[in-house]
Amino acid sequence: MTVQLEDVTVHFGRTCALEGFDLSVAAGETVALLGPSGSGKSTALKAVAGFVRPTRGRIRLGGNDVTDLPPARRGIGVVVQQYALFPHLRVADNVAFGLRAARKPRAEVARRVGEMLEMVGMTAYGRRFPRELSGGQQQRVAIARALAIQPSVLLLDEPLAALDAQLRADMLGELQKLRREVPDIAIVYVTHDQSEALALADRIAVMRDARLVDIAPAAELYAAPPSAFTASFLGGANLLPVSVDDGEVKVAGTVIPGLKPAEGKNLLCIRPHAIRLEAPGAAGLAGRVVGAQWRGAVNQVTCVVDGLADVVVRVDVPADRRVPELGAGVVMVLPGGACSLVPVGVG
Ligand SMILES: Nc1ncnc2c1ncn2[C@@H]1O[C@H](COP(=O)(O)OP(=O)(O)OP(=O)(O)O)[C@@H](O)[C@H]1O
């Protein structure tokens, strides 16, 4: 079922939590709302669920205006960060809750609960209480409960935030599986974790200060970010000031070969993994190393560029390559094909 937010604005007293927000999620599509803390992601999701009332704008599900309907009548599955299982109910009864509330026949409830527990790999845990489960197991039950009512819309608000790295990876796998098994479901997934958004979403909506900044297919946003904010928020791109001289783009006076100038005032955007470090004398941006952090598969080396004050460039050096020493002179090679220009000040 399609989810549409049309020009939705939400105020809490004097705080504007969401401003003129437009979003349309198709049946079978997953859209991630990604943005820093306080940017309005949860508010957008709560407006769809019916937990907050828009000050302005309309919410439509499958084309029907549900702005004035209470949450229970919207037929939506919701999973929030703090699993919120009923502590006094066993796992199976938690999953059955929505079905019983809808007065489904007993046999159907039992069958559906069985199917859902199997889907999330929790069949053996039906008689346990939530307190007898790990965080990841509780979260899986929460997802089973949300899906038991066969919602055509699933809203997930930071569903993996409380889990450790291993469990998060497992749950991401479960969610990907769920998308294959329930192909028509529309999913809105709130997160501030870009790796979750990239792994799950067909499209990513980047939010900042109660507004939508950019929305596009995940791969497109990553490869060619339309704004400086999205470039740095998604994938931590480097943003460098440029000058244009005689049809050539330059950083600190050095030509970036293969990069064509664009209209307006721009910054050069390049991902840390796309920059190569060479010894002084090579063709590229001269500078020196000011820091290095080991990140497992890569060392993230930070460099300053000669002639550019206040700009630090992050370079991912694969773990099997030598990391230049702190203070060493280096040349940063920026392949033109890995560079793009993003407008200054947009987003
Ligand atoms: N019930 C509320 N009453 C008052 N202000 C609120 C309420 N809920 C949210 N806000 C404010 O609205 C703004 C947006 O909040 P929201 O929870 O939507 O952000 P978020 O992007 O989901 O953040 P986070 O990632 O931290 O959960 C924030 O400034 C927040 O303080």
Question: What does this entry look like structurally?
Answer:
There is one protein chain. The radius of gyration is 24 Å and the shape is elongated. Helix content is 24%, strand content 34%. The chain has a 6-stranded mixed beta sheet, with helices on both faces. It contains 8 helices and 21 strands. The protein folds into 2 domains: 225 residues, Rossmann fold (3-Layer(aba) Sandwich); 114 residues, OB fold (Dihydrolipoamide Acetyltransferase, E2P) (Beta Barrel), CATH 2.40.50.140. The chain is an alpha+beta fold and 347 residues long. The structure holds adenosine-5'-triphosphate. Keywords: ATP-binding, Nucleotide-binding, Transport.
Task: Give a brief outline of the structure.
With 347 residues, the protein is an alpha+beta fold. The protein has helices at residues 41-49, 91-101, 106-119, 135-148, 165-181, 194-200, 218-223, 228-233; strands at 3-12, 15-25, 30-34, 56-61, 64-65, 76-79, 153-157, 186-191, 203-208, 211-217, 238-241, 243-245, 248-251, 254-255, 266-270, 276-278, 285-294, 298-305, 312-318, 329-333, 340-343. Helices cover 24% and strands 34% of the residues.
What are the key terms here?
347 residues; alpha+beta; Rossmann fold; OB fold (Dihydrolipoamide Acetyltransferase, E2P); 2 domains; six-stranded mixed β-sheet; five-stranded antiparallel β-sheet; binds adenosine-5'-triphosphate; Transp-assoc_OB_typ2
